[in-house]
Specification:
heterodimer; A: 484 residues; alpha+beta; five-stranded antiparallel beta sheet; four-stranded antiparallel beta sheet; elongated; B: 294 residues; mainly alpha; three-stranded antiparallel beta sheet; 4 strands; binds iron/sulfur cluster
């Protein structure tokens, strides 16, 4: 920080980042974080190996982004490229869930669920195993490095790299059959892109979780800025209850003051909350953008309060509104159900419900019809009029499906399809391969003598001969229109 | 607005120092960027220098620097085109050994033939026959079921290979309707009369003053040999059916007398030497599948 009176052009616009040495802590929030960490990482690393039977024609991997074949599989759901709106819906849903979490209990995402937080937590744990806790690490870094420090740091980085490599390795497994790819990777026969992606993710994981850590949250991530705009006085946030903590005095001093009936705060200024903080801040400075709201300072302070025999939760999930109320001598109120949370919850229900409804009622077949433009119509030698259409049939089921085509809308109207044999009742039967689409050229003919205007509506219908599912498309039948 | 510089000071509320910039009493806080951001910026500059060296970058007067790895988006295209060619060649072997009928029976080959045929048709045929074979006066519509020279796959293939009235090709489709008027075979009133009779054969109304008796006689003497007594035509001779709802040059009296007096004798080039056999086969399948194939 420049001294007052210095030339304005000389003040430092860049600062060296201060290394943070978070101390280990125990307590309910730490336990919750461990639980979430194991759950999330367990899912991430193991999910690609989960199998899901989809019959002989489709992959049996439960979660698979099959880029080459343009399919995305998630358990019983299979998404085609034209259904990307499901992903749009998921993103919308995810934002509303984030908003709701924020309106109820602040940055739950940042503190417990964000990959940046989860992996950083894991990397910090590894660091502690090799280099010891906060004080020891600070001492090591201050001293000249001896052999002991060197091998410990070396081992830490080696383990970090292994975790990072495993992270990248798990990532690519979501894009190909996992057991096959693992075998290929081990025998160096996997596609080059797999190795490249593993290398990229190894690097990013190592750099973001090992080196960058809280710098990502402080300087790179947009969410802290967004969340600052979303919070309000009634949202629970990790809060230092300064109404109870101030003035900060030592234990002895406090006992003395209380005996005299003078005001004494519960905060003993031990800096335990700041020591455990993974972003290196002091929660007692108030709500701040750098606080990821991991709750670890709550655990740290609770341990201290228990030791000195004062009530716990001097730092707690609380609201700014409550602090003001208590300062004014009123009782605290928790208003978690309020317009904002209700609105977010309603939006989540609406969007999620619409998506579920769409998913449950979506058909496994589809038809699209494109009228041939050149020629719009053809007069045949017997005077009948014919129109041609490109008809595309989609079969989203994992089996061959025969679709019978029929046409309606005009007297005597007939349908045939080029290169497709008709059934006994003269309906062309188009068989579509499992999980694919097929385009056929369809000819629709109206006999001579039927009065026709230049354009009339017709309907082309495709019915699955086995499952009975029927899809239809409306189009037009063009004719010369009176003259002739 | 009044902007001033003064000495940086410490802001009482935030504890941050200020930059010394002040606008109407509002001071800018100095929240220094971490130095590594600056490092990233310099690293990007270094990276871009690497880019200049590795990839084509600097514009020169007539060209650009080439870059040490010799990358060009053009060469990526050539690689992809080569792959496409190889893929097509592999498909072509399947098509080369199959007859048009066999191709139509095999969904995969059929799909390839249709795609290839459509492209080749657009490149070579659409100039006369129109996009999608829609036809025009004098250029047959290939979507209908009326064929001058036959609509079977074999007949279509033969027509595409050798064309119509191609000089010097012994296998070409050839027939010659005389120019009855120009050559002085029919007198004017005979021409008009036979034209009226042709309309009569096609079931079209004729003018009340038309001499249909003369027309019938002229038709029997001059036209029936090729077009048949009932005017049903003969594909062996390329003689069109005059009774159906389709005509190449028009069935109004003016067009008919013009056709009879001067004859038409349109030509189509033979494609045997210009297109390879597989392409011709694909074209055959495509044309046959437009809707009129027999
Ligand atoms: S642990 Fe509690 S008492 Fe100690 S400094 Fe933090 S808030 Fe104050
Ligand atoms: S201040 Fe507390 S809640 Fe916020 S990041 Fe630090 S330890 Fe976590």
């Amino acid at each position: 920080m420049s001294a007052a009176g210095a030339d304005p052009d000389d003040i430092p616009l860049f600062a060296a980042s201060r290394k943070v040495y978070p101390q280990s802590v125990s307590g309910p929030f730490r336990r919750a974080k461990w639980l979430i960490l194991f759950l999330c990482l367990g899912i991430y690393y193991l999910l690609p190996f989960l199998r899901w039977d989809r019959g002989p024609y489709l992959p049996n991997q439960a979660v698979l982004a099959d880029i080459a074949n343009n399919r995305f599989y998630f358990f019983f759901i299979e998404i085609w490229p034209q259904e990307v709106y499901y992903f749009t819906g998921l993103l919308i849903l995810a934002s509303f869930i984030l908003f709701l979490m924020n309106a109820v209990a602040g940055r739950v995402w940042c503190g417990y669920l964000c990959p940046q937080t989860v992996w950083t937590d894991l990397f910090l744990a590894v660091e502690r195993v090799f280099e010891g806790d906060r004080r020891e690490r600070m001492r090591r870094d201050a001293e000249p490095w001896g052999f002991d420090t060197l091998w410990r740091k070396g081992a830490k980085h080696a383990v970090w790299l292994v975790i990072a490599w495993w992270t990248g390795g798990a990532w690519v497994l979501y894009f190909a059959d996992a057991p096959t790819l693992v075998r290929e990777l081990a025998t160096f026969t996997a596609p080059l892109s797999a190795y490249v992606w593993i290398a990229i993710l190894t690097f990013t994981t190592y750099a973001l979780a090992g080196i960058m850590r809280e710098q990502v949250c402080k300087y790179m991530c947009p969410w802290p800025r967004i969340q600052a705009a979303l919070t309000d006085d009634e949202a629970l946030n990790v809060t230092y209850r300064y109404d109870r903590g101030e003035p900060r005095v030592s234990v002895k001093q406090a006992a003395k003051l209380r005996a005299e009936g003078a005001p004494a705060g519960d905060c003993i200024d031990c800096f335990q909350c700041a020591a455990v903080c993974p972003t290196g801040i002091d929660i007692r400075d108030g709500a701040q953008v750098d606080c990821i709201q991991c709750g670890l300072c709550i655990d740290a302070c609770d341990n201290v309060m228990t030791k000195i025999g004062r009530p716990t939760r001097l730092i707690a999930y609380d609201t700014e509104g409550n602090i003001q109320r208590r300062l004014a001598g009123l009782a605290a109120i928790y208003r978690l159900v309020r317009l904002r949370t209700l609105a977010y919850a309603a939006l989540i229900v609406i969007v999620g419900g619409a998506m579920l409804w769409q998913l449950a009622t979506r058909s496994t077949a589809a038809i699209s019809v494109l009228h041939e433009r050149s020629p719009l119509f053809v007069t045949l030698s017997d005077g009948s009029i014919r129109n041609a259409y490109a008809v595309r049939l989609l079969n989203k089921r994992p089996e061959h499906r025969p679709f019978a085509l029929t046409v309606s809308g005009l007297p005597g109207i007939r349908i045939e399809s080029v290169g497709v044999a008709p059934s006994a009742d003269l309906r062309p039967v188009v068989t579509v391969d499992p999980d694919s689409s097929r385009e056929v050229r369809v000819l629709v003919t109206v006999p001579a003598g039927v009065p026709l205007s230049p354009s009339q509506a017709i309907t082309i219908t495709a019915s699955d001969l086995f499952a009975g599912e029927t899809v239809r498309a409306d189009d037009h039948f063009m004719a010369p229109g009176g003259q002739l | 607005m009044d902007q001033k510089h003064d000495a940086p000071q410490v802001d009482a509320v935030t504890g941050y120092s200020t930059t010394g910039h002040e606008w109407d009493g509002i001071r800018e806080l100095n929240a220094p960027l971490p130095r590594w951001w600056l490092g990233v910026f310099y690293a990007c500059i270094l990276w871009s220098i690497g880019y200049w060296i590795v990839y084509p970058a600097w514009p020169l007067l007539t060209d650009t620097t080439k870059g040490v790895i010799g990358y060009a988006s053009r060469s990526e295209i050539s690689v992809e085109m080569a792959q496409l060619k190889a893929q097509r060649a592999a498909q072509a072997t399947g098509m080369a050994d199959a007859t048009p009928a066999q191709i139509k029976a095999d969904p995969t080959l059929f799909q390839i033939a249709m795609a290839q045929g459509k492209a080749a048709f657009g490149d070579n045929c659409a100039a006369c026959h129109g996009v999608g074979g829609v036809g025009a006066k004098g250029y047959p519509n290939l979507n209908d079921d009326d064929w001058l020279w036959g609509g079977s796959p074999a007949a279509i293939q033969q027509t595409i290979r050798h064309g119509i009235r191609v000089a010097g090709d012994n296998d070409t489709r050839v027939s010659q309707m005389p120019a009855f008027g120009r050559d002085g075979v029919l007198k004017r009133e005979e021409t008009v009369a036979v034209a009226s009779h042709v309309r009569e054969l096609a079931g079209l109304p004729t003018e009340p003053k038309a001499d249909l008796v003369l027309g019938r006689k002229v038709f029997a003497d001059n036209c029936a040999a090729c077009h048949g007594a009932a005017g049903k035509g003969n594909q062996e001779l390329g003689a069109p059916n005059l009774t159906d709802a389709i005509s190449l040059y028009g069935m109004d009296m003016a067009s008919l007398t013009e056709t009879i007096a001067n004859s038409r004798n349109g030509v189509m080039p033979g494609w045997a030497g210009r297109l390879d056999e597989t392409t011709i086969k694909a074209l055959t399948v495509y044309v046959h599948s437009l809707g009129g194939g027999q």
